[in-house]
Amino acid sequence: MPFRTYMDWVLHDPGHGAYGSGRLRIGPDGDFATAPSLGPDFAALLAVQVADWLEQLQRSAPAAHPLALVEAGPGEGSLAADLAGALNRDRPDLAACTELVLVEPNAGMEARQRRRLAGCPLPCRWSSFEALAQAPLRGVLLAHEVLDALAVERIVWDGALWRRQVVSLHEDASAGLSLRLEPGEPLEPEAAEGLHALGLLPPSPQRPPGWCTELHSGLDPWLCQAAAVLAAGPLLVIDYALEARRYYAPQRPAGTLMAYRGQAASGDPLVAPGEADLTAHLCIETLERAVHGRVPPGRGPARPGAGPAPPRPAARPRRSGGAAAPARGPAAAGGSPCPRRFPLAGLQPRWPAGGHPPFPAGARSPRWLNHPAWGLLCGDAFNVLVPYRGLL
Ligand SMILES: C[S@@+](CC[C@H](N)C(=O)[O-])C[C@H]1O[C@@H](n2cnc3c(N)ncnc32)[C@H](O)[C@@H]1O
Q: N or C: which end of the chain has fewer CB within 10 A?
């Protein structure tokens, strides 16, 4: 089967998938930790920004329906619970007119979120992108470490062609059944064409046969669905990402895929299928291209710097992969036409005049990509913030 199908199954199959079954546990005592699972600090920082956005939405249409704080892929529900708590404590005026909406495709995870959010001070409901698109909301949509859980394509160079990698089942008299990664069919010309923009074509002698990486073919359909959820308000994606030149550097011969189980990381994506988390970094340029597909013709991006300020970055969570992380990457856009398109907002860091706050020793400074349409904070020791706005 194609690697993408394998990754989708081992993560999301309702009976056997790591998320689908609800087997994976997030947090210091679970399989891996994320920033929100380490305590309420991350949510407390983010709550300031979320409150700003909700307030802007409220001011722009005071008589409109209640506001929504939507979280896609809430995991254990920690971020949603802590954000709701912080809003209720610090901005009761906004909390009084905001509902919490959770979008979780995996029933096993939803069951635990319901338990975690049992005492939530905000009205709380679970829904799907499809259902929300029927009556789009005014609010904020968050996705923290969700896009890295979308199934990726894996491609492998055979010395002459890029091929999709497949997972095959073998039976051996002595070793029994085993899974193997093998080169499959060559990429179609259209898909191969997209590799030029990522620096994977023309071929380089620095990438020997067997060199492999990832493409993020699930990104565009996900963004299309997310775009339909909000009638007004920003989408904030927080995740791990690399620029294409780093993602697809010849020195990264196996992409970024990592498996996590019991707080142990492995570069082997076939390890403990259905028991381990599988995650791949995002490629910034691929994400930019997917986002730009959503700028409506004639509408153009919002003013640079007019966008909301990001929260201060949180310390790198356990699941970031670390310096030894092997690499894999994103894929070409596909899927259905986007139901609604986004104008994008620029970002300005809200650092004090003197510059950014101090970084942990040894961390590289984050940098701002001053794209005319948007900005993102990118640094090895921090999450990446990729905000883009709806109709604010
Ligand atoms: C790595 S966990 C992140 C959990 C949480 N946001 C955190 O940071 O602790 C990924 C979450 O996204 C969910 N998920 C996977 N695919 C998804 C999709 N297509 N849309 C929304 N959520 C998804 C998983 O079930 C899981 O809850």
A: N
Question: Which residue is associated with the tokens 């650092």?
Answer: 351
H runs (alpha helix) in 228-357: 244-247, 284-292
In whole angstroms, how far apart are CA 144 and each of 74, 89, 225? 8, 22, 16
- CB of 73 within 6 A of ligand 1: the answer is yes
Query: Which CATH class for the 3-389 domain?
Result: alpha beta
Q: Residue 146: CB within 6 Å of ligand 1?
A: yes
Question: Which residues are registered as beta bridge partners of 279?
Answer: 258
74 in contact with ligand 1, CB cutoff 6 A = yes
Note the residue count of the chain: 392
Give the C-alpha separation, 182 to 92, whole Å.
Answer: 56
Rg (CA), the chain: 21
Domain boundaries, the chain: 3-389
> Which DSSP helix (H) or strand (E) runs through 193?
helix 189-193
Kindly report, residue by residue over 117-167, the tens digit of the pLDDT: 999 999 999 999 999 999 999 999 999 999 999 999 999 999 999 999 999
Which sign does the torsion angle of CA 175, 214, 335, 241 carry?
positive
- Verdict on whether the full-model pTM lies above 0.85: no
Q: How many CB atoms lie within 10 A of CB 370?
A: 12
Are 241 and 191 contacting, i.e. CB atoms less than 8 angstroms apart?
A: no
Angle between helices 78-90 and 41-60 (to 10 degrees): 60
User: In which band, very low, low, confident or very high, does the pLDDT at 102 lie, cut at 50, 70 and 90?
Assistant: very high
Among 9, 31, 239, 65, residue whose Cα is nearest residue 147: 239
Alpha-carbon span 80 to 74, nearest angstrom: 7
Give dist(CA 344, CA 56) in Å, integer: 16
